[in-house]
Amino acid sequence: MSQASLLTDEEKRVKIYSNVDRPTVPSEVTHDIPLESLNFNWSEKELPERERTKHVHRLHPYLGKFIPQLVEILLRKYFEPGQTVLDPFCGSGTTLVQANELGINSIGYDVSAFNVLLCRAKVKKYNFEKTRREVLDILNKLRSVIQANSRQPSLWETESSLLTLPETDDRYLREWFAPQALGELLTYRSLIDSEGYECRDLLKVILSRSARSARLTTHYDLDFPKHPQTEPYWCYKHSRICHPTTEAFKFLRRYSLDTLRRIEAFSLRRTNATVKIHHADSRRAIFPPIDGIITSPPYVGLIDYHEQHAYAYHLLSLEDKRASEIGSAANGSSQKAQEQYQKDIARVFKRAVNSMPQGAWVIVVAHDRSNLYGEIARMSGMETKAVLDRHVNRRTGRRSSEFYESIFVWQKSVSYD
Length: 417
Hints:
The chain has 417 residues and is of the alpha/beta class. The chain is 36% helix and 12% strand.
């Protein structure tokens, strides 16, 4: 069934089709550019991965996020420097980072503790030289522990006098990591806790990203591996026999250096616009005054946003609130699940509307394959001004089929008490 055939009569009336072939260059967008002049269908050549994952946007892999160029265009068209944009489902923080680049204040909410940790690490204003010293210092301390642990005792040393890698009773960690890799990760974690570093959130993100790569899984299935890989295997990514990972230090070192490059690159674009991030359920939040919304809500029944970072929750002892996820994958995508999803998303937007001025814009980017968002707009008291389609022909991670998402342009047009 085509995308167009799923639209309601009202949505067909406001459907916008681009009248230009050339994809839009974000920096060229102004408030008065017509919607039909916007083309979001970039090819890989026009928008390579290094641009889609520029600076802090790639501090850590994250499924289901929208690309920064899309957000930049929407911010330039609908917001001005000094205004405040809300993202009630801030995820990996794309809206927050891009808003800061443009001098726009931002507020983010998310029910996932990991998402909040990641967002805070991305948008923090760092003393780069001090951060660099801390990132390299913890690596050097970890290297010393590993080297001491691997040495044979001399005549005047006993086994007990040598430093040893810590262990854990966490079943998940013991199943998904080889002993050496797990010991290195746990040592790094203990150093974060004991050394008094200022960039603790950033170090935790480095640890999590390293743990993701150090798991006992195949190289071609890092997103949602189903079981630990403990034997050699044919690797579809490298077209050869590969072996499960047994160490973590090489990843910790690689991602430490990459992280330093990324936060330094973002520091050159960062402004003094404020960024506030809340670990909270947006259905129950009392939002402060805002000038509008740009967000990409969770999909219904598609992605388990907690499970994709399960290693981080176990390794960092993060609070797990997966039962509060809207559209949880565990609840499926039945008619009942879709109706509950509509109620939950609308509840968030209805609360946010109370904090916006008359005529404020709400921009929602969603993969609306079940045609749910027309009703969500009506339930929220929004007027649908436009609906644009975007062909996502390149995505982070593997894909097996064509993928489309819609950009819904809503406006507050009624008064709320």
